[in-house]
Amino acid sequence: MDLDNSDIYKTIKAPVKGVLYKDKNSKFFGYAFPVLNEDDVKNQIELLKKEHHSARHWCYAYQFGTENITYRANDDGEPSNSAGMPIYGQIQSFDLTNVLIVVVRYFGGVKLGVGGLISAYKTTAQLTLEEAFIIEKTINKNFLITFDYKNMNVVMRIIKEKNLNISHQKLELDCQITISVRKKDAKNIFEIFNQLFEIKIKEI
After folding, report:
1. Domain extents for the chain?
2. What confidence score (pLDDT) does residue 67 get?
3. Which of 13, 22, 25, 55 has its CA nearest to residue 123?
């Protein structure tokens, strides 16, 4: 049984859209998106601003990365730390990465106060993530294997034996195969190929 989970992380499989929470006439719409970089974040927020062009605030938090974490929390005009951080707290609470949560607020005419805002943004983020399909993925390392065509059978036998995932291959006189390997297995797989005559392997 595999008990080493150090190279597993959790994220969401698909977007969650428009989860509604109301407090004193203010409406909060929660959205969650799988994201991999800041361009993804920017694109999703721009689309939401078009969709909810008459809203007052588009507060958000995101986190991506597995070993080197990047995160940000944005209050978008709400009092400092009353929106972005409560949203980010839910990303941490659900132990997720590669995710963006946006809460769109329509002001209902009654001020909620900082405590009320913290509670509303936190609750909306929580309800949104409760709707999400959370999946586990492995942290992988990619290796490029280069070899002559005559060594094809040796390489392919190891790939098959070790059940390795090929992400790209160029099979001509000089062959190149890119494999994706779970982090915890990476050292072992590297050593196997590295010991073979006329076959080169490097991390990419």
Report:
1. 8-136, 139-203
2. 82
3. 22
SS3 of 184, please? Answer: helix
Q: Is the pLDDT of residue 97 over 80?
A: yes
Give every CB contact of residue 195 below 8 A, 6+ residues apart in sequence: none
Which of 39, 12, 8, 28 minimizes the C-alpha distance to 99?
12
Q: Do residues 159 and 143 touch, judged by C-beta distance below 8 A? A: no
What CATH code would you report for 139-203?
3.30.70.240
Containing H/E element for 24? none
Question: What CATH number is given for 8-136 in this structure?
Answer: 3.30.230.30
Dist. CA 99–CA 10, nearest whole Å: 10
Is it the case that residue 3 has pLDDT exceeding 60?
A: no
Token code pair at residue 34: 């799988």
Report pTM: 0.81
Tokens of 4: 């080493």
Question: Sorting pLDDT into bands at 50, 70 and 90, what band is 173?
Answer: confident
Which element (helix H / strand E) includes 187? helix 183-194
Q: Which backbone phi and psi does 126 adopt, to 5 degrees?
A: -65, -45
d(CA 60, CA 105): 11
Lookup: tokens for 162: 């070790």
The residue behind tokens 């034996």 is 161
